[in-house]
Specification:
By secondary structure, this protein is an alpha+beta fold. It has eleven helices and 20 strands. The strands form three sheets. Strands 5, 6, 7, 8, 9, 10, 11, 12 and 13 form a nine-stranded mixed sheet that branches. Strands 14-16-17-20-19-18 form a six-stranded antiparallel beta barrel. A hairpin with a 2-residue loop joins strand 6 and strand 7.
Length: 465
């Protein structure tokens, strides 16, 4: 088989090994295999680096065809070369630029992915207008979660322990939020604000918001188990959910911006969350209707929210049906009567500010998480109190006890029910001892009462016989 190039380079025809020796060593193996395959197909095109007579390498586009054998004429390869070095240099530069862009995007995804969902990051990276300062109005479901009493807890713990609690809490919550495709709009300390419905709207946004909230509450038991193992205090979380119209988009300036939502319904979500107690999820009536029949609700309440003229109806979210099938465990907080009532003074907390007056009250019944109290001045349900307790000897117990009024005691009692949100270590120890003693005394009374009832029944039987 003879080699002939239309370029006029007779040396290829006279010395076929010349070509093989001048192909770039890094391309040789590939090129030899390709040329062999193309010869079998009758010809083709292959690109490779070839050593120029100057000593450097140039890129060659080699086009050839194989002429069939004829009588008296052997098979030969007829082709031509084209110098494509400039094109290859441009392609290499574009590839380097593309790799740099991909590395940059990967860095952005990894860095900002810790704060934003993948959908928001992709929206910024893939859309030519992703970073434009613009917004749109749409209806979304919002969720606000917050640890109860964490501010006062952080004031009495060393910073390392505060950060350990916070990091453990967020480490558990963030994956759950991502699992239910929520967009984490903001994390402020122990508060997490999440959007369902932006930047990507889905028909089941409200259902996923409730399922996410329940999953987060269920995960708190594992968080507190780890806290106990690390000799750290247990924490409780309250959650508020609301569906309403907001403006969503990139907010800020050209130097610094964030993807988020603005509007009065954002504030309402935060307000609903503030009415919740530890372990509780409150959802607005609009949110409840958006979720539909799969939502299992508990107590219905009316709350007054700043900026809204009429009271807002909220419900306890207790569970959600198929396809999520998640439910909060039912718990009974039994109040035991105190053998000796405990006096205290209290202030009413309004809009995170303390009232100007102090009032007197007494603890009449107690449980590990709440109490029945008599208050000198009645307060609306879901109001927050700051209480200072006095021990049986008349001595003030150091620190403060924060609690939320959750309703009036049923029955003949005129007391109000409160749910503890946070307390000083001294008060926590005092209440623990007091609650244990009250529970033991209550059990003893019940035992005596039951034994007396049995004796009475035995006497009736004896009389009958």
């Amino acid at each position: 088989m003879r080699y002939r190039r239309l370029t006029g380079r007779r040396i290829l025809r006279d010395n076929p090994k010349f070509w093989a020796k001048h192909v770039h060593p890094e391309d040789a193996s590939r090129v030899f295999d390709e040329v062999k395959r193309l010869i079998g197909q009758g010809g083709g095109t292959v690109e490779y680096r070839f050593r120029h007579k100057r000593g450097d390498y140039v890129w060659i586009q080699d086009n050839f065809r194989v002429t069939p054998e004829k009588a008296g004429k052997p098979k030969e390869i007829v082709g031509s070369w084209a110098n494509i070095t400039d094109r290859k240099n441009i392609e290499a530069a574009l590839e380097r630029l593309s790799n740099e862009v991909e590395r940059r995007n990967q860095f952005i995804r990894e860095a900002f992915g810790r704060y934003l969902t993948d959908e928001v990051v992709s929206n910024v990276l893939e859309s030519p207008t992703g970073l434009e300062l613009k917004g749109e109005k749409r209806t979304v479901t919002m969720m606000m979660a917050d640890l109860r009493g964490f501010t006062s807890l952080s004031e009495r713990l060393v910073p390392e322990r505060v950060v350990a609690i916070l990091n453990r809490y967020l480490t558990a919550m963030v994956p759950i939020i991502k699992q239910y495709q929520g967009t984490i709009d903001e994390i402020i300390g122990d508060a997490i604000f999440v959007i369902f419905g932006a930047p990507i709207w889905q028909e089941d946004d409200a259902q996923r918001a409730v399922a996410c909230a329940i999953a987060m509450q269920l995960a708190m038991s594992a968080v507190n188990e780890q806290n106990r193992e690390a000799d750290l205090p247990e924490v409780e979380m309250g959650i508020g959910i609301h569906t309403g119209p907001v403006v969503v988009g990139n907010v800020g300036s050209s130097e610094r911006m964030k993807y988020g939502v603005v509007g009065s319904h954002v504030n309402l979500t935060s307000r609903i969350q503030s009415y919740s107690t530890g372990g509780q999820i409150l959802i607005s009536d609009t949110g409840r209707r958006e979720v539909g029949h799969s939502l299992k609700t508990g107590t219905r309440m009316e709350v007054k929210a700043k900026g809204f003229e009429r009271p807002v109806t909220v419900y306890e979210a207790m569970g959600i049906g198929a396809p999520h099938k998640l439910y909060l465990p039912e718990s009974v907080d039994t109040l035991a009567p105190l053998t000796r009532e405990v006096s205290f003074t209290y202030e009413i907390v309004q809009e995170n500010h303390l009232g100007e007056e102090n009032y007197k009250g007494t603890l009449t019944k107690l449980s590990p998480k709440g109490a029945e109290v008599r208050l000198e001045k009645s307060v609306p349900n879901l109001s927050d109190l700051k209480m200072h307790l006095v021990d049986p000897d008349g001595q003030a117990i150091p620190g403060a006890l924060y609690a939320k009024v959750i309703g009036a005691q049923r029955g003949d009692s005129e007391g109000s029910l409160i749910r503890f949100t946070s307390s000083s270590p001294e008060i926590e120890t005092f209440l623990r001892v007091l609650s244990s003693a009250a529970a033991e005394a209550d059990q003893a009374r019940m035992k005596v009462k039951n034994e007396g009832h049995v004796d009475q029944l035995s006497g009736i039987r004896l009389g009958i016989h």
